[in-house]
Amino acid sequence: MTSIDAIAANPSVAIDDTAQGAQSTTGSNSQIGEQTFLQLLVAQMQYQDPMNPTDSTQFLTQTAQFTEVESLNNIESEIKAQEASSEVLEAGSMIGKDVSVATPSGTPAVSTVTNVGGNLSVDDSVGSTTSTTATLYTSKGTQEPLRLQFTRMPDGSDGSKHWQARAFVSTTPIAGPFNVDFDASGNLTSGDITLTSTQLDQIPDSSGEWDPNGVRLNLGTSNDSTRLKVGSGADSLTSFGGNGTDGQSVSGVVTGVEFTANGPLLTINNQQYQLSDVTNMNVS
Question: How many CB atoms lie within 10 A of CB 148?
């Protein structure tokens, strides 16, 4: 009489044991992957009852199921690759754009720097003005719009170009004039401007809510594409945001992109944010 091994007589035991071993390699994932499916199929063939082997139709059905699972996995991988490529293109297109990013930290941060750049037209007549509005944040997260006005002054005898800058709340001046000077090539020579906390305290209902060192107006350096410079054509003075927040969002120009395994990271105001956190892009 042919004897049958106890395991072979009960193939479900072997299959269960194999499945448990396979599950331990896949963690808590409830979906059956390719490796697990193959282990189950091999276990079923290895421990089948030799007196009652697996029906060939059943075997072909299981093989077809495996092929289907493999195809679905390949489709999923392709979709993920396409999504990653789309994110790369989208993130790259945001460089130089003014965007808003959700920051659900709930903790406001006071402004200590705001970025001002663009072109001051060398064709402007003496006494003409151009302005931009910078949004500053108090330590309580309140947004305070500040108007920055630049007035054209006479050129120097050496060909240097000169403006004077003032800071206004509505029509009330709170700081300035500050000299903003350029050499004959249009490069800034006078450096950044600092608005003191005393000057900022003049903004209604904001006294005592500013950083003790005030707010620096960053006008850029020679290697900064968004720096304040002098050139022909029209004025295009622009505020590019700063480092203050209301605890819920951040606005500023995207100056760089880093591609990571978790998706692109956008550099805004020297901080990095997820692409998925972008809530708005200013296309004007």
Answer: 23
Mean pLDDT of all residues in 199-210: 95
Report the run of H or E that residue 169 belongs to, with start and end: strand 161-169
What tens digit of pLDDT does each residue of 78-105 get? 776 666 667 667 777 778 788 888 876 6
DSSP letters spanning 95-153: TT-EEEEE-TT---B---EEEEEEEEETTPPTT-EEEEEEEEE-TT--EEEEEEEEEEE
Token code pair at residue 228: 């304040």
In three-state secondary structure terms, 256 is strand
Between strands 172-182 and 193-195, the pairing is unpaired
Q: What percent of the chain shows pLDDT beyond 90?
A: 34
Q: How many whole angstroms separate alpha carbon 206 and alpha carbon 252? A: 23
User: How many C-alpha atoms does 253 have within 13 Å on its Cβ side?
Assistant: 19
Number of Cβ within a 10 Å radius of residue 121: 17
Burial of 48 (0-12, 13-18, 19+ CB in 10 A): middle
Tokens of 67: 């092929």
Residue matched to tokens 């903790």: 107
Exposed / middle / buried, residue 25 (Cβ in 10 Å: 0-12, 13-18, 19+) = exposed
Strand partners, 238: 117
CA distance 186 to 197: 31
- Whole-model pTM? 0.59
